[in-house]
Amino acid sequence: MGFQCPASRHQAQKRANETSLDREPARPRGRVLRIAASVAVMGLSTMTIGCAQSPDAVTADGTTTPPATVERPAGQAQTGMASYYSHRFNGRRMASGAPFDPGSDTIAHRTLPFGTLVRVTNLRNGLTTTGTVQDRGPWTRGRIADLSPRIARQIDMIRSGVAQVEIVPVEIAEAPE
User: Fold this and answer.
1) Beta strands 78-84 and 143-147: pairing type?
2) Which of 141, 75, 86 is nearest to 112 (CA)?
3) CB atoms within 10 A of CB 157
């Protein structure tokens, strides 16, 4: 009774191996749970994206405001060469009466009123920033604006010294009466 034929034992082992090959190898339970959790989080994130609001849309008292608009031009765009103030102008009085600060957002323009906010775009690389007209000039032929060193750095024109720019008034200040 306890004796078994070697051939039958071999056949039983072969049948066991065949059935184990048909099954997929068992995955670790932790890995399966991590995958399921990742899929659930991604699904919830995808569903809630449409419900999200920008932080600027809700005020402190809970009321909503329309989304911020892109700065629209308030005047005619001008294209031409711009340079930036030399260090020797630091502290000198500008046409507006204020001392020049190289860290400010000062722009010198011949005709725009003092206090006008302008958008300056370096046409070579597309970098844009804003500044305020606080001085008159430039007095060099062929230039449309002088920029503070801070603005020149922001639009990456420090190395070249001059650049082809577009100047667009965004908010024109009221001229004093």
Assistant:
1) parallel
2) 75
3) 24
Q: What is the CATH number of the domain that holds 94?
A: 2.40.40.10
Residue 38 lies in a domain: no
Say what the pLDDT of residue 39 is: 74
CA trace torsion 134, 139, 143, 149 (10° rounding): -50
Tens-place pLDDT, residues 88-138: 889 999 999 999 999 999 999 999 999 999 999 999 999 999 999 999 999
**DSSP secondary structure, 74-125, as one string:** SS--EEEEEEE--GGGTT-B-TTSSBP-TTS-EEE-SSSPTT-EEEEEETTT
- Enclosing domain of residue 111: 78-171
Domain count along the chain: 1
- Name the nearest CA neighbour of 85 among 166, 150, 154: 150
